[in-house]
Amino acid sequence: MSCKKFYNKLPKILVTVVTAVMVFLPYIAHAASTSDLYNQQSSISQEKKQLQSIKSQKQIEASGLSSDLKSISSTINQVESAISQTRKEIADTQTKIEDLKIQIQNEEANLSREKEKQGNLIANWYMEGEDGLMEAVIGADSLSELVDKTRYYDAVRAQIEETI
């Protein structure tokens, strides 16, 4: 073959080679891409399974935490209820204490008055002797007044004897 013929056929050869490369290149590229895609799909599938497994574990953990949260919430409610009840009992007790203080003050005032009355009565009996009872009997205007004064003197005498 001569050079001239070769140069004439060269464009045909180049076109044929380029056409052949273009025709077969997608198959070669496609074969490599398909293999890569299968590997990538397999890798993604494994990753998906791992993520689903992690998701299941996290759901179980979340369920357990939710249960713990409900339990803690219930305990908090019980404690708050007990605190509220205790506060109510404290308030009731404080009210009772205040009422008892008032009663004690009233009773102390009554006791003070009664002591004064008894002191005056004892002083009168001491000064008058038995004449005070006789005067009460003689000075009574009615039988019921006489009975009342006699009972009063007897009650006072009994109280004095008890305290002495």
TrEMBL record:
Stretches assigned to coiled coil: 76-117
Residues making up the signal peptide according to the UniProt record: 1-31
Keywords: Coiled coil, Signal
Name by which UniProt lists this protein: Peptidase M23
Organism: Candidatus Berkelbacteria bacterium CG_4_8_14_3_um_filter_42_13
